[in-house]
Amino acid sequence: MTAVLENAVQQDNGVLRTAYQRSVAAYWNDNPNDDRVNYKLGEVDGIFHHHYGIGAADFSVLEGPEAGKEDRLIRELHRLETAQANLLLDNLGDIRPEHRLLDAGCGRGGTSVMATQRFGCHVDGVSISEYQVDFANKQAAVLGVEDKAKFHFGNMLHTGLESGSRQAIWTNETTMYVDVEEAFAEFSRLLAPGGRYVNITGAANDLNGMKSRAVTAIDAHYGCNIHLRSEYFAALAANGLIPIKVIDLTPDTIPYWELRTHTELATGVENPFLSSYKDGSFQYLLIVAEKA
Ligand code: GPP
Ligand code: MG
Questions:
Q1: How far apart are CA 161 and CA 149, in angstroms?
Q2: In the chain, where are the structural domains located?
Q3: What is the pLDDT of residues 64-97, one digit of tens each?
């Protein structure tokens, strides 16, 4: 067998099973978009996020001396992203130090690190990007939480983790990369009875018909496939995950995107987000479900 073929077979039996998954992994291993908006914000306190922000933005950072403006913007955007992760953690239920959690699509590990710091519990994060896994493990060591937060090259659709082993699972803006039916079947298998699944995601609004041009532009920017709102609830119900809370975070995330248009780190995706949130074709949702 040639080396190339051997490699392909090995990958098909392992973490990456489809051409789509390999393309997503390649994107995050070698981000073709300007990634400074994630890196520079993470440098503020060592917590590296791959999601957006919520809450009232302090637009006064745009005033005052031009000299420190960019730094003030970076700190404020980072504060809003950390607020988003805190809201997600607020919804995981009663997490105790002996519990084991799963961060499905962990990125550079920010939300997992915050979870171990808050609850003293164990978190496993999986990502199909080896670059992200390596970054997250190194950063956990820098922050002194490497014994609690562990990151693995793994696929949320088939984690290989033990059934019923998780008190909580979350996806922080990662479900647009997977078939949610498949993902929720795996989460349902992994959760202990009464355990929680928390999802923060952007969803296309069914009431608006098919995906708007702006939502399609967001898909194209990240190489993802944004789902309809209804698909989430159908897939939860089909897998014994019973919603207990749904919050439309759209109004809470708009200030983040408005502020982000002012930084030199803006990537061009800001206007599609703002226009689709404002015309109602796209919604930023928190969904909390319990395992029956
Ligand atoms: C990435 O955040 C999040 C996604 C790629 C998923 C898409 C999310 C939706 C709600 C549609 P990031 O922090 O890596 O993106 P950016 O580089 O733009 O900050
Ligand atoms: Mg970002």
A1: 15
A2: 33-291
A3: 899 999 999 999 999 999 999 999 999 999 999 9
